[in-house]
Each structure stands twice: as structure tokens, then as C-alpha cells.
Specification:
98 residues, mainly alpha, flat
Length: 98
């Protein structure tokens, strides 16, 4: 596993690495105040705030899964039917040998 310093030496991933660290600090410093802002400042009740957070988590997971499935469906035709048949046959042979 590469060390942190080797990541910072690589020019191609230096900026994304620093950006992720900065975003992590930003999120960690503001996340504890989300409920205070939602309940006190926006006037949401405890129940409505928890429902909002719950449904936003469901939407997040659903969209992530949908994007993953769409990505797999888009890659499969690019591989070609022959490649898929060969892969399936290889998996079938490997399973039979076990």
C-alpha cells in the first residue's frame, strides 16, 4: 500500500488527494451542526428532520445502485457477445473442475 508521501509525490494524483483531505476536514467540521441548522434555523420538528435525513439516505443509496447497474449494462454490449460467451464458458468450466 502506498504511503501518504508517495501519493503527494505523484503529480497525477496530488491535487485529488489534497482535495479529498480538504473535503474530509470540511465535512467533519460541519456535519455535527446539520441537525441544529435543520431543527432550530429551518424550523423542522425532530420527526420531520429525521424523516428528511432517512429519505435522503434512501435516495442516495438508490441512485448509487442505479448508476452502478446502468454502468454495467453499458459496458456489457461493448465487450461483444463472443467475449461474453467465452467468459461464461470459462466460468462454467472452472465451476465443473471444482
Amino acid at each position: 500500500m502506498p504511503s501518504t508521501f508517495s501519493l503527494l509525490r505523484d503529480n497525477r494524483i496530488r491535487i485529488p488527494t489534497v482535495t479529498l483531505v480538504a473535503l474530509a476536514f470540511t465535512y467533519a467540521s460541519t456535519a455535527p451542526y446539520q441537525s441544529i441548522i435543520g431543527i432550530n434555523e429551518l424550523g423542522l420538528s425532530n420527526g420531520s428532520y429525521s424523516a428528511l435525513v432517512f429519505f435522503s439516505a434512501i435516495v442516495n443509496v438508490t441512485t448509487t445502485d442505479a448508476r452502478h447497474l446502468v454502468g454495467q449494462a453499458e459496458r456489457a454490449p461493448a465487450a461483444g457477445a463472443g467475449a461474453l460467451r467465452r467468459r461464461h464458458a470459462r466460468l462454467r468450466v472452472d465451476r465443473d473442475l471444482s
